[in-house]
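User: Fold this; tokens only.

Assistant: Input:
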Amino acid sequence: MLQNKVYGSVISRDSVNYYLKESKKYTYFDFNKAKFYLVKAERVAKKLNDKNLIADVIYNFGSNYYIIGSYDIALQNYIKAAEIYDSENNKIGLAKCLMGKGLIQQGFGRDKEALKNFKKSITICRALNDKKFIVKNLLNIGISQTNLNEYDEAYKSFQESLKLSVKNKSTEDSQMSMNKLANIHYIKNNVDSTIYYYQKVLTDNVKPNLWEEAYALSGLSEAYLKKGDYQKAINYGLRGYNSAKIVRAKWDIARSAEIISKIYSQQNNFESAYHFLRINKIYNDSLYAESKIKEVNILQLEAKEAENERLIAKAEIAQQKLNNTRIFVGFIFFLLIALLIFIYQYYKYTSQKGKFFKEIEIKNRDIQSQQSMITAQNIALEELNQTKNKIFSILSHDLKTPINSLIQVIELNKQNDLTKEEQTFIFDQLQKQVEGTSLILNNILNWANSQIDGTTVHFEKIALNQIIEESISSFYAEVIKKKVSFNHDKEETIFIKADIGQTRIIIQNIIANAIKFAPLNSHIDIHYTSDDKFLKIHIKDYGNGLNQNKIEEIMNFNKRLVSEKGTSMEEGTGLGLLLVKQFLINNKGQLEIQSVEGKWTEFIISFLKY
């Protein structure tokens, strides 16, 4: 019925609106499908010769081209639609086109000019009480204020747009408002508020369009990266990247790829980090190249529009003068010739300007290439410097206690306070101490080499209770000094799958920690449990224990803690538990702490079963 009467009166107008509505369904993810319905709408509107409908179709063409980043074509349509709306005295149509022009200027970083157009548009919309476009203008004003670092003003604009869009039940606009509020909170380092608003977008009763979904997912990825939760960061990052690819939004693809690259870099997955960094560079280069070409086209279009306005003004003046007298005909002809000369000169100027822009573009590419090389070199140097500092910290941490023991024995020997029997006994134990120290040093040097060379964790079959015994032996002097005994359940050999060097460092640090906080004449219990996936070692001392706040501090920190003194006033560096956490992550293990304040503390370390 609709097709049979498509060129009728009332139904024909409805058919144009129908095609426009169908087009909007595909706006964010299928440009060709959206364009297909717009062409149909344009055909019907032209048959009807309804200028307002024609302008509506042209405006929608502009919006679709804007979404896929063809700003120059979008601006052509906005200018064309504005001329028709203006001739028909359609104020709201003119306001929409002003907003569209502002969006184009915003896309090229000309936010001060964009704000002028948005404010003109919102003034018209407020006068007409058009709530829908009031909200859209508030959003666009907030974005430009954000780009100009006017964060407090931007926050107010987004809050007002969210309030109005919720009141108007405009889901798409409310979701966009929440995305932008989340971004402001991220800029202000309010990470929890950032996550709250992005999650509200994704869990809304109405599923967001792919554009807003990609923005929210990538935003969550960036927020969790800042929190150090790399698993969530990478999950959200990849989902955002896929959504951006579906909608073909180059800016969003480049943004998500950059975030994912940073996450993989933090996880030392440099191959994946480089892969996404290349994707980011490809899209950024594409956007840069396109923006330069489109910027020239847009400058020409804006100049043409300004020239058209001047021509209209001149024509009106000329017509008024022609009505009074024909004397000025010759003068007007002269003005037209001068105008043609001006246009010709302007054309030459714009041609030269285009060539100039191309030369600048080539130079900018060279500069960017050099900057990329310098940045890569700086990153490599920084990583080497951090590794050096980490190696020195580990050496000072794990060798301090054995060296102190050696110094004490040497001083006792120099003072001749030891009998021959005592010397024989102590030097036997000193040999064990030196052997243990040698083992520690070899482990540290092996780990240090792996840090410098960038080698991966080598998983192998390890006898865990043998590692425990070796570690206990390496702390013989401290054990004798504090008269601490070990209850080690070692009847059968326990095997795990891990890196042997890093496993030794983990066990040595936990045992050292237990000895440090064990009271004099006490004992330390060591036993094993298991589940479907992990083999767990329980190391329990009967010292003063830890309160819940201290346990949470240990479990949540990601850099060196302030070391506390042991029961015999032993000093520490605060590095040991940092190494334990880092190496457990490398070996896919887990750490759990249980404690009763004033009674005992138990560290439970989980390794993969072999």
